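Researcher: Go.
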Amino acid sequence: MPQRRTPEPTALPLREELAGLVHPEEVREQRRECIDGHRSEPDEPQGVDPLVFQGLTDAGSIVQIRGKADEYQVWVDGSLQDRIAARKNLSIDTASLRFRWDGKELVEIFNASDEALRALADYRDDPAASPPWEYASELLADGLIDVHFDLTPRGRRAVAPV
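Model: Structure:
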């Protein structure tokens, strides 16, 4: 009888790889116990809407726009300030997006490290390359990739040539 080979970590489906990076081991263990029927479904924090834009005001406030499709929320320093429909404006994927909100022009900023941005740019330039797994949590939190490791419009802006 032939032996079964264990797939290499890079051969596992992308979603499983990202789940391992994003969800803590404790939550995954609780899920396993739930599947086995030993406990009820674990409590988890609600998902956060994807970050589609982040900018800085002249006063130093951080403005974040989160959401999907045309259901965007504008957060200023962690407080919900507005709901907007700006899909067309936020789907631009060229460098240096400037977004106008509440009479202010905001220049986009990114939280991901320079190393993560370089690795993401290298991955974009060579589709045959393995995704930069070591930066997945950081890139996902900054809204640069989705759970399939596809670049979002924000991600394409982050690595676009200037």
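Model: Residues 114-125 form the longest helix (12 residues).
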